[in-house]
Design a protein that fits this description.
It is a single chain. The chain has about 80 residues and is mainly alpha-helical. It has one domain (about 10-65). The chain has three helices and no strands. It has helices at about 10-25, 35-45, 50-65.
């Protein structure tokens, strides 16, 4: 199944808003500040998105961060 990328402006804005809320409260290594706890305590009451949508946004954000950087010095086959 191909991965879908968000095309709609409102969806991208919602994902950015969730990303900002998560960045403000998430602390790695703490159970009370893990991503799921932040979703349940902060994000869901504010945005009203489902847990599945939250994890979809997180996967899209991580995929954007892992994009390889094109090196102009790298030779290409095709």
């Amino acid at each position: 199944m191909a991965k879908k990328h968000t095309k709609h402006k409102s969806t991208r804005l919602s994902a950015e808003r969730v990303k900002e809320l998560l960045r403000a409260d998430y602390e790695p290594g703490r159970q009370d500040k893990c991503k799921l706890a932040v979703y349940r305590n902060k994000i869901r009451p504010i945005t009203g998105i489902s847990e599945r949508t939250f994890w979809r946004y997180m996967n899209e954000i991580e995929a954007e961060q892992e994009k390889p950087i094109d090196d102009p010095n790298q030779l290409k086959l095709f």
